[in-house]
Known about the structure:
The protein is an alpha/beta fold. It is built from 10 helices and 17 strands. The chain has helices at residues 17-26, 67-76, 98-119, 155-159, 185-204, 230-239, 259-271, 291-302, 326-332, 340-358; strands spanning 8-12, 32-37, 58-61, 81-84, 125-131, 140-142, 147-148, 168-170, 207-213, 215-217, 245-246, 253-254, 256-258, 280-283, 289-290, 308-309, 320-321. Strands 3-2-1-4-5-9-14 form a 7-stranded parallel sheet, sandwiched between helices. α2 runs parallel beside α3, α6 runs parallel beside α8 and α8 packs across α10.
Amino acid sequence: MTVSSNSTILVTGGAGFIGCEISQKLAGSFDRWVVLDSLHPQVHAEGKRPERLHESAELHVGDVTDPRVWDELLESVQPDVVIHLAAETGTAQSLYEASRHAQVNVVGTTQMLDAFGRSGHQPAHIVLSSSRAVYGEGRWIRADDTIFQPGQRTHSQFETGQWDFPGATALPSRASETVPAPTSVYGSTKLAQENILLAWGAAHDVRISILRLQNVYGPGQSLINSYTGIVSLFSQWARGGKSIPLYEDGQITRDLVYIEDVAEAFAAVVTRTEIDPLPILDIGSGVATTIEQLARTIADYYEAPQPHVSSAFRDGDVRFAACNIDDSRRVLGWTPQWDVQRGLAALQVWINQELLTAEGIPNE
């Protein structure tokens, strides 16, 4: 499928990790690739245009929460498609900077929609990058086959080392089956984004597509943002010869999805012309990996000391986060191509190149 001629796409937060990869995959399919990004120092230390952003991208530096930024942008840009990536993403950080997360994620989204109203132009299609965080703990199943959603683990549970829900096993989340029940401020703001866009889109006959991403990793991710990306953090610890500390008992479980597979999913959504039978889809590898398995794989790569259980914990964190991708395969014709072992190896090559360059050591 191809995008119609004379087409313009606007990508908010498009200079970030995911936005840059999508630009490399899709920029040539549009006449104009426009990016609005604040170049926040937590992600962009030097505040410069990322090298990984496609050369054809028109970068506008501005804050999605500022209506003046939107009005100025929409004077010259009338997007046919919007990919809405702009968001604060730190799950733990959101507990202490709730207003910042709500301002960017919720108000930033409503400012965008209000600006479309003022401009008299509305896109045909808005694609939201949402998160597995909207599910919280998701669904679990007991030995008698009863399914329940346990909700958030409490601080007192963490203090006594009650990591799991006794007598139950976690189930992969699926948008068509799992009721969202976020356990973090971040997850709550992402769910609010979904609800706002779905309501606005229905009222204006604008197509809305929502991709709930699992833990995205790969070349290009931030190496300085301590609030996101345990894969990057684990890699740097092991590279430095350190034993990776494992939270809880090491059995926290995540679905690790490689950045190239995520970009392919966005490409499949953006270029799809059929009416979406399911507007919300899960994007992951479809494979559950414990943080112990992840840490051991990385430690082995660097021949670093084996990981150790620290019993530390993060309030609001979930025990199990993985997804069923059957609907995404069927609707999008998309299948992830990278398994964890191959993806982690590729990431280590890139990290070594980046850190050697930063250290001023020639990479031969």
